[in-house]
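ok so for the tutorial part 2 we go from a plain amino acid sequence to predicted structure tokens. step 1 is just haveing the sequence, like this:
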Amino acid sequence: MVSREPPAATSAVGGWALRDARRGWLQVTSIGLLLALGVGMYSAMSSMAGWRTASADASFGALRSHDLRVSLVSGSYANTGQLSAARWRESPTAAW
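step 2 — the prediction. this is what the tokens look like for a chain of 96 residues:
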């Protein structure tokens, strides 16, 4: 007589997950590939943040372009950081 008891792996908690994974192997593989691609892209992009900032600074310097250029009238003065603080306080994109 042949035993009809399920194997130990399917009788354990989560055995249904293994059964469903075997049935839907294409979906499981696709989700795994998508997850691996997303984690890899996040890792690659976050490790390049310092390089991107330095590259942008060098490019702006070489092209002599500015994000914001301020000129003061002769004889006027501003404390260190005062103009920078005012720029962020009044900028429409400050909330970004």
